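Example 423.
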Amino acid sequence: MSDDYRPMWAGLGLDLEKHDRLLALLNEVYPPIYLEQADRPEGMGYFDFVISEIHGLRVKELLDHKAKGARVFGTFCLYVPDEIITALGGISVGLCAGTDFSEADAEVDLPRNLCPLIKSFYGFKKGRICPYFEATDLVVGETTCDGKTKAYEHLGGMHPVYVIEVPHRKNDDTRKLWRTELDKFIVAAQKLTGNRLTYEKLKENVRLHNVKRRALQRLNALRWKDPTPISGKDALLVNQIAFYDDPVRFTASVEKLLEECERRVEKGVGVFPKNAVRLMTSGTPFAIPNWKLHHVIETGGWPVVAEESCVGSRYFSVTVDESPGDLGGLLDAVARRFFDIHCACFTPNAERMDDIVDLYKKSGARGVINYTLSFCTPYLVEARHVENRLKKEGIPVLSLDSDYGMGDFGQLQTRIGAFVESL
Ligand code: BJ8
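Predicted structure in complex with Double cubane cluster:
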């Protein structure tokens, strides 16, 4: 990445020495994990470019938008409504939370035995390491899990934070509460952006995000073909970049990639041999740049063909009903979509088990790796439900929990290798 960005990073108040070390680390790990894969689709070139400019071009775009009066919203969860933010002229950016680089900074305030995703984003702010974080006008948190909910209290001492209350049960009362929470968020977002939410703007932005989700649905469905035209690692990267790239440009790049993958499928071209053992994952999100599990699996020669994850199917499977003809009706439709995303913060959460079984059947996977980030109570406790349901269906499952460190790489290889042997 060009040194021309140094004044921009300095202007954002970054700790340049730490930031240099982070970029050096990314430059070291990206080529062997990504660029050395055989037979990648050419369309991945755009996404490699995005990574080569990870803290450059997109951050500059955000700052240019801000200079014209736009506001930037940072998020960590699917339950923050992107369509409302963009309808108000804001930009929604999913913030980095997938590396242990910032763990030491986080542990100044937070306990060691906490989910690595929370420590990652908290440490990025505390250590002044992430330019995206510093470019945001507001971080929008949510009361999904206790770790995030309590971490936002500390974060609020360092950065403007707004927390949306996400209910944990699905009934008429909580649906009303959730709709009220969206209304309250709209008031706060209107105040920040200086714009009013209109039916026309919301409709346009519901469409914008639906088109993006549908493109991702189609791309991810192509992975189910045998041989799979794109590696799980590459698909994961696309799904990660969805959170922070410009939505129009991103969708156009996904459509180009999926057309290429369609041609590959027609010609029987794949990135793994036909009949290779295919696996899918279920569980906690793979925040960028967490590529560890996919790298372990695909290094073994087994393509990952689906993720039941917020960086995966939970992100794109459900679209918003575009048919309501007034603002209230469209907001109801936006609100309804969130109750069809089955995060483990909900109780009970039987629908998630159905989603995993459904994805397993569609994807042609031979087994499920049920993956949980260490110390993530909702997904760790729900893991037993996942195992029980999959065993009842006769679906092989291996539950794993892991953090962002590379210390267990060999152990994961051994466990997944033994699982594949057993299939
Ligand atoms: S909708 S999965 S993005 S909450 S991994 S921080 S739950 S302790 S990320 Fe999530 Fe929204 Fe749900 Fe998706 Fe807490 Fe667990 Fe950490 Fe988690």
